[in-house]
Please model this.
Amino acid sequence: MDNKHYNAAYLEDTEKLLLGLKKSSYEYLSGLSAGKILELGCGTGSDAIQLAQQFGEAIQVIGLDHDPELLVLGREAAKKSGLKHLEFVEGLAEDLPFPANSLDGIRAERLVQHLQQPKKVLEEVHRTLKPGGKVVLVETDWSGLNIYNSELEIERNLVDYLTHKRVNFGTASREIGLLLDGLGFRNIQWVVKPFVIHRLDAANKYIMFDKMLMSATDEGFLSQEECTKYLTLCKRLDEKGLFACSMSMVTYLAEK
Ligand SMILES: C[S@@+](CC[C@H](N)C(=O)[O-])C[C@H]1O[C@@H](n2cnc3c(N)ncnc32)[C@H](O)[C@@H]1O
Model:
């Protein structure tokens, strides 16, 4: 299991923030009228459920994840929704339990950034998609985090920690295009969508801002004094309505 820094509650919170982005990513698969769609790294299963609701019974939706605890929540929600053309499978993205050329669409959100072997997983995506099948990958641009205050060095160290230490493949959002190209995917497109968060409590909820600072300090990317100083500054700005941070999500679309 990866050294994960997300849990079911975090995934539910971010779901609300990312609603519009998620809907656009489902749209890309909307030309499909039959076959199978895989939601890879499905977590608590909410995107798999949305896809199953959106596509109707002609499409079989499969949610796959390596975390059995998250899959329990997905299976419970699927049972409540009564959807028959939806199933959840425990498995590894590095070794997909599907034959070659068997899937019509694959969607993965905030998965590739956590992988130890991203190229291997994208090879599996290519192997299992049918010719003409579509892939949608949504990733966080960790290295593009901006926190709007004057402490640039602390910000740089924090971003460095996020991109190169905390997240296994923190530059995924910037590298996936060429990886897809190298594997022979066609019609590669990408969309960069920035988000701005204006309150410290929202930053703590959606990007775990306070936890990020603490762990960057524990890992030696910031000193205890820098961490305290930075939190104090952010709180002061927040009290005056002057706190903001921004970050982009990047969606890649491609065909086999
Ligand atoms: C940040 S969560 C995102 C979950 C979901 N896609 C969403 O957007 O809410 C990353 C998910 O990928 C899964 N995951 C990470 N590495 C995996 C692997 N090698 N094989 C299968 N699932 C994996 C995790 O268990 C987790 O559910």
